[in-house]
Amino acid sequence: MPRKRPISLFRSVRFRIAALNTLVVAIAATAALLGLRQALHWTLLHEVDRVLQEDVAEVTLVVTELSPEGLDAIADELARKASGHRQHKWFARLLDGQGGEVWSSQAAGSTPPAPDTSDAQPRSIGDERTLRAPAPSNPLGIASVQLGSSLAFLNSDLEQIDRLVAVAVLLMLIISPLCGYWLAGIATRDLEAMTAKASLLRPAKLDERLPYRGVDDEFDRLADTINRLLDRIAEFIEERRSFLADAAHELRTPIAAIRSSVEVALDKDRSEQGYRDLLEQVLDESESLEVLVNQLLLLSEAPVSLEKSPLERVALSAAATRSVEMFAGVAESRHIRLDSSIGPGIVVLGIRRHLSQVITNLLDNAIKYTPEGGRVTLSLTSSNTSARLKVTDNGVGISPEDQRRVFERFFRADRARQRDDTRGTGLGLSICQSIVAAHGGEIGCQSRLGHGSDFTVVLPLTIPTVDDAANG
After folding, report:
1. CA-CA distance, 64 to 74, in Å (whole number)?
2. What is the pLDDT of residues 394-410, one digit of tens each?
3. What pLDDT, in 10s, does the model give residues 262-297?
4. Residue 3 above 50 pLDDT?
5. Crossing angle of helices 152-199/13-66, nearest 10°?
6. Which of 132, 305, 332, 358 could link 114 by a cystine bridge, Cβ 3.0 to 4.6 Å?
7. How far is CA 151 from the centre of its chain?
8. From residue 428, how far is each of 6, 130, 158, 249, 433 by CA, in Å?
9. Which of 316, 303, 286 has the alpha carbon at shortest distance from 390?
10. Exposure string (b/e) for 426-460, b if CB count within 10 Å is 16 or more?
């Protein structure tokens, strides 16, 4: 027995589950953290804008109230406000109708005036957030006010958040594989147990099965699938064992007869006619042995041949006509009436010689078990999807208990109901069933003891062509 190679860590299901878990967690967490970072950025920026809008409202109020006192009064008030917001580099600028600067606080520096827009919405200019709005009518020529604040504090907060996000992602990349590997181990524990149990299964112990956990999950379904497969394998092996035992038993009879005849021939000197009689017996038994071996080969190769051989279009009408013509002489010699009703152009996909063998076996059985003066009828019809072949006789019939076993290998009905010349191998109907099943069809039997039997074969139909019609 070849040694089992250990599974590489990187090829194991557990590792792949852990790796996928790490990848998914890393992507999801990174996306979530980046989304949170962007949301915080928008929130902080919105807060800056709200403060600027409140300050604009306050400054326009100052311009309205202090404009009668002159520009210096307004400048002093705005300078005090700018001094109170020095940490944010808050600034104010008063502009005339042409956008020229009337006055500006010290923090305004080189910040250019914001564009004159009617929406009065905050804008970013460099590292500063600024807002320009129209001023109320005043005698000082102030047309608009511009306020601004540095975004340095906001960028500093975002840099801190970025560092926290990087640390969080790094921690997740460390913790996620470990947790994923641990969780994958829990998830695959039952699979490993099933694998260990399956490795102990042996052909000699066909009754062993994988256990169920009773939770109806994927592992229970896998166990059920494997167990049903083991049931089919056990059935197949048991069938093969029975087949081999029956085949050995059937082969033993002609071999023993041949050996006995040879031993008799060697026992003492005989006349030429005596040797000839013994050789004829050996020849008869050899022919019986050859028929049996050929049937065994056909029985074993039918399903395999259909899988390996290319399918051909079989003109079933022509095959049925040839079989009826072939058995016409046999039926006449036994004073049996052989009738046929064959529909034209019926075509199926399959192997020609195997399907011909089915028709031959059914006709041979029908004639074999029909007494003189009886009648055998073959009919072939078709529907939209199937071809139906029916062979009917009014022979000895089959008892109900034998009908259940008539397609078993090596089964023979009660010999008391057989004629002396109907010795067979018990494989003919079994061969028919194997071939029909391999072609995706069905075969059935209906019979009444003393009234005859009906054997019906149903095969999938294919569309006939001009060549099929020409061939029958």
Report:
1. 9
2. 988 888 888 888 888 77
3. 887 788 787 888 778 888 878 877 877 776 677 677
4. no
5. 160
6. 132
7. 58
8. 50, 100, 87, 17, 9
9. 316
10. bbbbbbbbbbbebbebebebebebeebbebbbbbe
